[in-house]
Write a structure and sequence with these properties.
Number of strands: 9
Radius of gyration: 20 Å
Strand order of the largest sheet: 1-2-6-5-4-3-7-8-9
Distance between the termini: 25 Å
Order of helices and strands: HHHHEEEHEHEHEHEHEHHEH
Structural class: alpha/beta
Number of helices: 12
C-alpha cells in the first residue's frame, strides 16, 4: 500500500480529494504504482476516492507537482512521503486534538538532520507573550534535556518556543522547529537568525506545508498537533485556558503520551490567568507537575527519569 511523494502532492491539489482521501487511497494500493497505473483508476468507483478525477486533471497535477518538488530541492529543502521507508516513525503518532483521528503529514518537508526524529524528543512549548518565570523555565529545561541528549521540539514562535530552542543551542544540543508554513519562509521574521542557527548546529526545521505556503489560522493548529506528534512527551511552561499550546497538550494527553506542566515556586503565579491552561491540563487531562526550580539533586533525578522513559519508547 503506497503512493509516491509526487503522486500525493498532485492528488492533494485536486478538487474533492484532499489529504485524508489521499491517505485512504494509498492504504488501499498494494505497493507503489506508476503514474499510468494511477491514471487508470481515475473516474472509476475505486472506493469513490478518484471517481471525480479525470486522467487529464491528474496528468496536469502530476506535472505541477514535479515542478514544485524540483523547486523545493533547488531551495535546499528535503521531503519524504508517508509511505517511504525513511519517513520518521514517530510522526505516525500525530493525532487530532481529541486523539481519535490520524493527522500524520502525507508529505514532510525538512531542512537539517531528519535523523533527529529517530531518537528521544520532548516538546517544550508555551505562550508567545510569556512571563519571565516561564522563559527562565523553558531555557533551563531545554538546557537540561538537551545536555542529556534529548531533541527539543518547539514551534519557533516568540516567547516560550524561542526560549526552548535557544536553551538547547546554549549547550550545543539539538532542537527541532515545527513550522506552520513552507520552509522558504520564517515566521515570525524576528526568528530568521534563530532558524539558521538551529540548522547550522545540526538541528532540524520541519513542516507539512509545501514551498510558498503561507500562514493561516488552521496551519498553526496543525503545527501544534505535529509538535505533539514528533515527540514522545510534551511539557507546557505557560498557557492560558484557550491558548494555542493547548492544542498540542490535549493531543498528547488524548493519544496517551506523557504530559507535564511547569509548577513554579510562586503560588500566585501558578494561580494567575496566564497559567489557567496549566491548571486545566492538570485537572481535566491528568498532566503531571514538573517543578522546574526545586532542589537541584531532586530535579536531576526527575529529569533523568523522564529521559529514561523517553528512550524506552523512541
Amino acid at each position: 500500500m503506497a503512493l509516491t511523494v509526487t503522486q500525493m502532492v498532485a492528488l492533494q491539489t485536486l478538487p474533492r480529494v484532499g489529504k485524508k482521501r489521499v491517505r485512504a487511497l494509498g492504504d488501499k494500493i498494494e505497493g507503489f504504482m506508476s503514474d499510468d497505473e494511477l491514471a487508470e483508476l481515475c473516474g472509476k468507483s475505486y472506493g469513490r476516492l478518484l471517481q471525480n478525477v479525470t486522467p487529464k486533471a491528474l496528468s496536469q497535477a502530476l506535472q505541477a507537482a514535479r515542478a514544485l518538488l524540483k523547486r523545493t530541492q533547488k531551495a535546499g529543502i528535503g521531503f519524504v512521503g508517508y509511505y517511504d521507508q525513511d519517513y520518521p516513525k514517530v510522526l505516525k503518532s500525530t493525532t487530532s486534538e481529541d486523539g481519535t483521528k490520524d493527522e500524520s503529514p502525507n508529505v514532510l518537508y525538512y531542512r537539517g538532520d531528519l535523523e533527529l526524529l529517530k531518537g528521544p524528543s520532548i516538546a517544550l512549548i508555551g505562550s508567545r507573550e510569556a512571563d519571565p518565570q516561564a522563559l527562565k523555565a523553558c531555557t533551563y529545561l531545554a538546557e537540561q534535556f538537551a545536555h542529556r541528549g534529548v531533541n527539543i521540539v518547539s514551534g519557533l514562535a516568540l516567547g516560550c518556543d524561542t526560549a526552548a530552542h535557544q536553551g538547547a543551542l546554549n549547550v550545543c544540543g539539538k532542537t527541532t522547529a515545527v513550522l506552520a508554513h513552507g520552509l522558504d519562509l520564517v515566521f515570525p521574521p524576528q526568528n530568521l537568525k534563530l532558524a539558521h542557527e538551529i540548522v547550522a548546529q545540526g538541528g532540524l526545521l520541519i513542516s507539512e506545508y509545501e514551498l510558498g505556503a503561507g500562514v493561516e489560522n488552521y496551519t498553526f493548529i496543525q503545527r501544534d498537533l505535529l509538535q505533539a506528534g514528533c515527540a514522545q512527551a510534551v511539557i507546557v511552561a505557560q498557557a492560558r485556558y484557550h491558548g494555542g499550546s493547548m492544542h498540542a497538550a490535549k493531543a498528547a494527553a488524548n493519544s496517551g503520551k506523557p504530559l507535564y506542566v511547569v509548577e513554579y515556586s510562586d503560588p500566585e503565579f501558578n494561580q494567575s490567568i496566564a497559567n489557567s491552561g496549566l491548571r486545566k491540563l492538570k485537572e481535566e487531562f491528568g498532566a503531571l507537575s514538573l517543578q522546574a526550580f526545586k532542589d537541584k539533586a531532586q530535579m536531576a533525578q526527575s529529569l533523568d527519569a523522564i529521559v529514561t522513559r523517553l528512550k524506552k519508547v523512541s
